[in-house]
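To whoever is covering the structure queue this week,

Two jobs came back overnight. Logging them here so there's a record in the thread.

Job A:
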Amino acid sequence: MTTEILATGMFSAILIWGGIILLSSVIAFGALWICICVAPADLFLRSGERPHDRHPILHLVWVIVRNILGGILILIGIFFVVFPGPGMPWLLLGLALVDLPGKKKMLHKAVLLPSVQNLLNWFRRRGAQRPFHYPEETPSEDHAGKTESDQKNHSIADSERANNV
């Protein structure tokens, strides 16, 4: 029976597929580790808005390239979810790159989970980096887009209304 498997080339196909899975796993987890270790410690405390120093055309090209690369990584992740392989790291890398509505809010909710914080900081400790700083609470829906003084005034008005009731 073993000679039949060797003779049909099934064994070499299994070795090739196993090598592809192993190589893909090493690349995906290595890229994920590098991204986590290179990110600044205050990554999750930054607002989503930041001024772009680049020329508007270069910024547009960067956004297009980043979204195309993210889409390719998502497709690779879906392939490896359907077939044996490391699908989740590829999906995470792809989702981190693409611009999706609600992505920041979903990311904010995910990093509030202690298990996610422990995993991210485990990667950072292995890379000799300081742990991430995480937000204290989830941003409120009714305070979105308001300045800090507007939020203070709003919360003072809320507390006065609660005292009057």
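Job B:
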Amino acid sequence: MQAALCLLVLVTSMASADDTKEKDKDVKALQGKWSVVKGVDRGKPVPPKELEGVEIEFKDSMYIIWEGKKEVKTTFTLDLSQKPKVMKLDTPDNEPKMVEMIYEIDGDDLKLAFTKCGGDRPKSFEVKEGIDVQIMILKRKKK
């Protein structure tokens, strides 16, 4: 019985260490500035004019978004236990609750999907017209 318990503790701590390494890898991959190159709102493409000047920066555990001159800073955490992976943003004091979004990162490409009104996070990047989900496709800015 004690051997089984020790094995369970060992396996759990190994999985936890692997999760931490994977999370650290994603946090590191996200670092830097990103430009929004494409958007989808409720299943419809966002006009490119509306995306001009929209940028996101990940700096350590900070998430900073610019829309023109407007800047919003918050902190983010990652949850890799979900599929697709989840990013949680602490909302500024005047917002109703934490925002959860799904994300997918592949080198210099980043995809985010979230609900605009703080509803339940999307389950996939497939969005049907009329569903309150917004998708942003971002490209890493070169230094």
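Note for Job B: Helices lie at 2-30, 48-51.

Please reply-all if you pick these up so we don't duplicate work.
Q.
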